[in-house]
Design the sequence.
């Protein structure tokens, strides 16, 4: 491997020049620095950063948002979001949702226990 962050990309040439895709690339690079592999997809004015099954981050050029849980009372999905101007901070929040990832703070898991940026 060349030492560059890894993430797969699938987008048409016109999608790759849009702001949502560029913001998604920045997020994917930050996640890669945390050891979280991603796949990028773009189209219809949005970009998606696929992290794992059940964890997809959408980007519209202004914010990132992802499914954070389920509200049993209202029976609706709960979403978290973060401004697209802060991809590194968003990546840390998303990495917390990646089981076994670098920010997994369960005993014996991840790097969060040893003073990482997570």
Sequence:
């Amino acid at each position: 491997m060349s030492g560059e962050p890894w993430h797969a990309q699938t987008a048409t040439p016109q999608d790759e020049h849009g702001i949502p895709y560029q913001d998604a690339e920045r997020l994917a690079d930050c996640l890669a620095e945390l050891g979280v592999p991603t796949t990028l997809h773009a189209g219809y004015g949005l970009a998606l950063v696929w992290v794992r099954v059940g964890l997809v981050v959408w980007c519209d050029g202004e914010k990132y948002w992802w499914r954070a849980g389920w509200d049993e009372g209202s029976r609706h999905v709960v979403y978290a979001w973060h401004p697209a101007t802060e991809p590194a901070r968003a990546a840390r929040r998303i990495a917390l949702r990646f089981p076994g990832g670098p920010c997994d703070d369960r005993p014996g898991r991840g790097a969060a226990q040893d003073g990482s940026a997570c």
